[in-house]
Amino acid sequence: MGKSRRKEKAIPPPQLPPEVREEEIEFSDEDVKFVEENKEYARFVSRIDTTAINRQCVGEAKTVEDKYEEERSKKKVNQEEKGSNEIQVDPVDVLPVKTLDGKLHYRTVTKKSKLAEADPDEAEEEDVLEDEHILNKSQRRAKAKKSKKDAKKQEKEVLEEIIQEEETPQAAVLAEVKEELSAEETFENKKNRLAELGMLLLSDPEANIRSLKAMLDISKDENAKIVKLCLLSVLAVFKDIIPGYRIRLPTDKELEMKVSKDVKKTRFFESTLLKAYKSYLQKLMAFERQPVYNQVANRCICTLLDAKPHFNYRDNLLTAVVRNISSPDEVVRRLCCTTIRSLFSNEGKHGGELTVQAVRLIADQVKSQNCQLHPNSIEVFMSIRFDEDIGKRDREEANKKKFKKNDKRNNQEEQNQVQENERKKSKREMMSKIRDEVNADYKGVTYEPDAMERRKMQTETLSAVFETYFRILRKTMYSIGESSTEEDDTTLNPNAFGPHPLLAPCLDGLAKFTQQLDLDYIGDLMNYLKKLASSSSVSTDSKKKNSKLLTVSERLRCCLVAFKVMRSNLNALNVDLQDFFVQLYNLLLEYRPGRDSGEVLAESLKIMLCDDRHQDMQKAAAFVKRLATFALCFGCAESMSALVTLKILLQRNVKCRNLLENDAGGGSVSGSIAKYQPYATDPNLSGAFASVLWELNLLTKHYHPAISTMAGTISNMNTSQNQTFLSAVTPQQAFADYSLQKESFEPKSESRKLNNKRKRESGGEDVPEIDMGELRKKLKENFTILRGIKEDERVRMEFEFRKKNPTKKQSNVAKKKPKSPKSKKRI
């Protein structure tokens, strides 16, 4: 049995190595040399029987007929297998088909068996396994790899199908979270990239100057935060990298010249820096128009101009800043105004050139916008400084040098009259030339112009400033000169800052720079101020508010400017200021605390009344009376400033203290007018000496203790003594102090205590409410409102007549009493 089993087992022949062409076989020289040296050991190769080996491995050689029969048998087997998998099924209730021969043919459908449908891959695998012993190792490996890839693809497809079937809202939420995390990661990566590039540039700018382009490319990102960070980081880099001089690119001739490596390196650094700076400025100008990046772009522009005003492209930066100086955005407007103020105050950085350019640009903008700008655009001029002593030091030093040279020459001529050598003269001439060249180079580097240039720039700035101021005054005069009956102003835009937005800063600037103005123009300026101060915001005909006319605070500013102009010129002009006193006297009645500025009123009281030493008695008395009525009508701050001014006037003018007397005739009639006219427009025609300061008696009962004490001290002033001392408190200080205390001060009221006592006595009963209608009727029956002095006199005459004839009144009452019952009976 064992022998038969061994015989049945067929040992497969070993596989032959893959056939290789003789052309592809390559032998090395070492192999050929080795074979030639050891031919004796290779004799057995020539004795090998190749035919026997081929029979054993490949088998006997087959004829064509044998191969044909094998293929035919294989085809039959395959057809049988296919037929076994297919089954013929006769459909039910199907009519047969009759052929031309007359035979009936029933249609059949071939159906694959379930096993064939389920396991087509298994059959293929079996065929593959049967044929595996025929394939080589390389072919087997390739087939194994393909099968693994196919299995992996099938697994992935199955997983995707499962995921699609099991999709829920949680999966969508997880996808959104993943997207957010990825966005945060990209944001952090870009931030880190910006930080790395910035650190590289700050550490060694000359070596890493090319990384500026990479930083600027990040600004093209779609995320707004990344763009803002990029702009700010590049700004910080430029502030540190930009040199302290203006870069001048080399010309073509200079580029053709041979230079050292250091010079080439510096040229490359300067050229790349200038290109990057230019592209950065272009991006800032583009981002400035977009509302998202407006504030960031303007911040970068302002900081660059403030930090490096000497560098290239400063004119473009200055035009951008001046264009936004009147922006509706408050943040941008403040940035631009602070930048221009710093340029005006720090002229050493740019030598004063930017000051002239900025003033010219602002003047052109005021002209183009027809004086309709924000007041901050003109308030910037207040920070300009004009130096009157330009070139004095240089002149003094030059004079000293001349005197020293003259003294030396005289001494030398007296001591030694020998001529100097020609060599010494040539040396001195060479030294002087070298010094001049060095001084010229130093001036070009330090941006310090000569005294003549500085004086020329100051005259240009001053002319531009006064041109702007006079243009504003002329525009206001033109608008006031139009018909006051027209209520709608068609010349102004609806989005403008007001009818006269630039007038207040214009007047402040005129008050400050009047010392620099020529005397020939001051007369015209005073005429303008008189016309502006005399214009009222309420027309006399229509009694309606006109927006073109000036307000009370603006008219007060005109009066202040006129007095400041006269004082700055040391009263050298023969100008009558009586019109301005008249306007102040009338404006005290038109003042309203919520509408007008109290600081301007307090300043006008100080400058026009307190500081003026030469005053007429009639005018001073009129102002005293008007200020007393003013203090009685308004709040704490206004009334305190008026009382301080009143006290100063009474201390200076002893004759005005007669108003404190309580005579039967209404005061000491020492003036030319015997009767007081409270509504007179001219203070000299008011007749204030014919009145009494009865307002002080009411002010002593004021709820504020400071005002009541001030009114008491004024009413107790002695008329006989000549008090020369003045109060240390000014109206401005009084207004500032009591305007702050207005909110914190709470007067003590005793009504709460009385009400609590009444409640305790009455047992906690509620107090009944008062009927305001009945109260008004009773007040009208017993009291009358005085509309004027004539009505006051009429009421006094009636009262005196009733006092003299009380019997007639009683008789009339007695006669009227019996009539009432008769009338009732008739009804």
UniProtKB/TrEMBL annotation:
<feature type="compositionally biased region" description="Basic and acidic residues">
    <location>
        <begin position="420"/>
        <end position="435"/>
    </location>
</feature>
<feature type="region of interest" description="Disordered">
    <location>
        <begin position="742"/>
        <end position="773"/>
    </location>
</feature>
<dbReference type="GO" id="GO:0005730">
    <property type="term" value="C:nucleolus"/>
</dbReference>
<feature type="compositionally biased region" description="Acidic residues">
    <location>
        <begin position="118"/>
        <end position="130"/>
    </location>
</feature>
<comment type="similarity">
    <text>Belongs to the CBF/MAK21 family.</text>
</comment>
<dbReference type="InterPro" id="IPR011501">
    <property type="entry name" value="Noc3_N"/>
</dbReference>
<feature type="region of interest" description="Disordered">
    <location>
        <begin position="116"/>
        <end position="151"/>
    </location>
</feature>
<dbReference type="GO" id="GO:0006270">
    <property type="term" value="P:DNA replication initiation"/>
</dbReference>
<dbReference type="InterPro" id="IPR005612">
    <property type="entry name" value="CCAAT-binding_factor"/>
</dbReference>
<feature type="region of interest" description="Disordered">
    <location>
        <begin position="59"/>
        <end position="89"/>
    </location>
</feature>
<protein>
    <submittedName>
        <fullName>Nucleolar complex-associated protein 3 isoform X1</fullName>
    </submittedName>
</protein>
<dbReference type="GO" id="GO:0003682">
    <property type="term" value="F:chromatin binding"/>
</dbReference>
<dbReference type="InterPro" id="IPR016903">
    <property type="entry name" value="Nucleolar_cplx-assoc_3"/>
</dbReference>
<feature type="domain" description="CCAAT-binding factor">
    <location>
        <begin position="556"/>
        <end position="711"/>
    </location>
</feature>
<feature type="domain" description="Nucleolar complex-associated protein 3 N-terminal">
    <location>
        <begin position="190"/>
        <end position="280"/>
    </location>
</feature>
<feature type="region of interest" description="Disordered">
    <location>
        <begin position="796"/>
        <end position="827"/>
    </location>
</feature>
<feature type="region of interest" description="Disordered">
    <location>
        <begin position="1"/>
        <end position="24"/>
    </location>
</feature>
<keyword id="KW-0539">Nucleus</keyword>
<feature type="compositionally biased region" description="Basic and acidic residues">
    <location>
        <begin position="62"/>
        <end position="84"/>
    </location>
</feature>
<feature type="compositionally biased region" description="Basic residues">
    <location>
        <begin position="138"/>
        <end position="151"/>
    </location>
</feature>
<dbReference type="InterPro" id="IPR016024">
    <property type="entry name" value="ARM-type_fold"/>
</dbReference>
<dbReference type="Pfam" id="PF03914">
    <property type="entry name" value="CBF"/>
</dbReference>
<feature type="region of interest" description="Disordered">
    <location>
        <begin position="395"/>
        <end position="435"/>
    </location>
</feature>
<feature type="compositionally biased region" description="Basic and acidic residues">
    <location>
        <begin position="743"/>
        <end position="753"/>
    </location>
</feature>
<keyword id="KW-0175">Coiled coil</keyword>
<feature type="compositionally biased region" description="Basic residues">
    <location>
        <begin position="814"/>
        <end position="827"/>
    </location>
</feature>
<dbReference type="Pfam" id="PF07540">
    <property type="entry name" value="NOC3p"/>
</dbReference>
